[in-house]
Specification:
mainly alpha, 5 helices
């Protein structure tokens, strides 16, 4: 790649972004993207890429996700990108699980002694 002026991200229109990038960066890039991502005519349409999200959720844990977001935070801020919905959901789910666990493991505020 000598010159390419495209910025995309792994959002719900990831395949459409790949097709746009391939068209802007030339035939060699388009061939590489088609080979790697198995792009087809439907890929340029706006649609939700559920298989990509499933793969990410299969390999990411909330702890790994936090590290990745810390590492890429400057990109999100500089490019004014939103955190993907799946990432927000994963972190919110973890927070809710932690709240539920702390409620279960929390000692009672007071105990009543019996006079037996």
């Amino acid at each position: 790649l000598n010159e390419c002026d495209f910025v995309g991200f792994m959002g719900k229109d990831f395949n459409a972004d790949l097709v746009t990038m391939g068209k802007r960066c030339g035939a060699e890039m388009m061939r590489a993207l088609n080979f790697t991502f198995h792009l087809g005519p439907r890929s340029a349409r706006k649609r939700t890429e559920t298989s990509a999200v499933n793969k990410v959720e299969e390999f990411y844990t909330p702890a790994i996700l936090r590290k990745v977001l810390q590492y890429t935070a400057i990109d999100y801020m500089t490019l004014n990108l939103s955190i993907p919905e799946w990432a927000e959901r994963m972190l919110q789910d973890e927070e809710e699980e932690n709240k539920n666990l702390s409620r279960k493991n929390k000692p009672p505020l007071f105990t009543v002694a019996s006079n037996r």
